[in-house]
Amino acid sequence: MNRRGLLLGAAGLLPGGAALAQAPLPAGMPPAGAVRPSAAVLAQLAPSGALRAGVNLGNFLLINGRTTAGEPSGVAPSLAQAMAERLGVPLRLVPYARPNEVAAAADSNAWDIALIGAEPQRADRIHFSAAYCEIEATYLVPAGSAMTSLEQVDRPGVRIGVSAGAAYALWLERNIRQATLVPVPGGGDAAFRRFVADRLEVFAGLRPGLLGDVEKLPGASILPGRFMAVQQAIGTLKQHTAAQEFVATFVADAKRSGLVARLIAQHQVRGLSVAA
């Protein structure tokens, strides 16, 4: 199974397309909270009568399978389902191929919440909760590379291949000073192919994905440590202040109760950690 965009071929899964039906509630999900959400919260989070959750199909850690009905499954859909249960409404998943497409749809009334990486470049239109989980990002270098540490990457003449629009790509845009970024549209697999074909010096990605990439390139290695950790959060529209308070409480409860940790274990995801 391709780790990036694995669900695009499923029936009915079109980037930014029609909302999908409710996914089954994961085993072990705690019951919804006793306190009913206010009318203001429901008006902002479920104006259509359902919670519409924008999800990124390209994140192979948060969406790593599909249901028998062909719908996305994984930590992110399950967490969105738990929020819908708390609200007392059905869940509708709104799938996108890449995270930048989720963020770009913030002004189109396509979703009520978005489960993507919290990055400053997206915060002009989206209010993010505290992170519920995080994913390490680091570098892969080809055979024969003289680079052995993260500190050696940001130097003149070094070209870094990266998936355009990914949260870690946005971080690199803000922080790389001397090396040259080579953003590649089409997701991580396309970026990796470009890295190999153009003989780039470095490839940036999420550590779990790089563990698979390194096996495809004899002699390649992954540099120790991380240059950042992608903070996966739940976004709402900036003007929806009542929704923001509700989502903040929900995320705090999901971490404190162990729900996020249980979902990571249930979906058998390696490389994903509960955020502090």
What does this protein structure show overall?
This protein has 276 residues and is α/β, with parallel strands linked by helices. It folds into two domains: 39-133 and 231-274, D-Maltodextrin-Binding Protein, domain 2 (3-Layer(aba) Sandwich), CATH 3.40.190.10; 134-228, D-Maltodextrin-Binding Protein, domain 2. The protein has helices spanning 39-45, 75-87, 99-104, 167-175, 188-197, 207-216, 241-256, 259-266; strands at 51-56, 65-66, 72-73, 91-96, 113-117, 126-128, 133-141, 159-163, 180-184, 202-206, 221-222, 228-237, 272-274. The strands form two sheets. Strands 1, 4, 5, 6, 7, 8, 9, 10, 11, 12 and 13 form an eleven-stranded mixed beta sheet that branches. A two-stranded antiparallel sheet has the order 2-3. The model is unreliable at 1-34 (pLDDT under 50).
Give me a quick take on this structure:
By secondary structure, this protein is of the alpha/beta class. It contains 8 helices and 13 strands. A hairpin with a 5-residue loop joins strand 2 and strand 3.
